[in-house]
């Protein structure tokens, strides 16, 4: 899904799944990074995740639109890079040293 959207430079998982404290049925908190991301991009990506076969609810946001400083700090400190367009990092590379958050 993310590869199909050129404006997405990076996607970061945060929250309980990034901390390893998730429970059965926990959603996936995912924030997107990209200079040219628009609200229309966000809506389309949300729709694609909703229509996908992924068995979880994916709560997608744009990092630059997050106003809560505590959430932004959590993402910087605990976030796991799921996708990085420039480094071709995809899920299996989550947590590797060169997969850094904004």
UniProtKB/TrEMBL annotation:
Residues of the Polymerase beta nucleotidyltransferase domain: 1-87
Protein known as: Polymerase beta nucleotidyltransferase domain-containing protein
Lineage, highest ranks first: Bacteria, Bacillati, Bacillota, Clostridia, Eubacteriales
UniProt-listed SUPFAM superfamilies: Nucleotidyltransferase
Gene3D superfamilies: Beta Polymerase, domain 2 (3.30.460.10)
Annotated InterPro entries: NT_sf (IPR043519), Polbeta (IPR041633)
């Amino acid at each position: 899904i993310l590869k199909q959207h050129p404006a997405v430079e990076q996607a970061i998982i945060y929250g309980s799944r990034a901390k390893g404290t998730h429970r059965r049925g926990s959603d996936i908190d995912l924030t997107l990074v990209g200079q040219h991301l628009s609200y229309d991009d966000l809506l389309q990506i949300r729709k694609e995740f909703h229509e996908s076969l992924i068995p979880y609810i994916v709560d997608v946001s744009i990092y630059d639109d997050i106003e809560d400083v505590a959430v932004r700090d959590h993402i910087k400190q605990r976030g796991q890079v799921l996708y990085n367009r420039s480094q071709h990092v995809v899920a299996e590379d989550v947590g590797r040293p060169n997969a850094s958050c904004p």
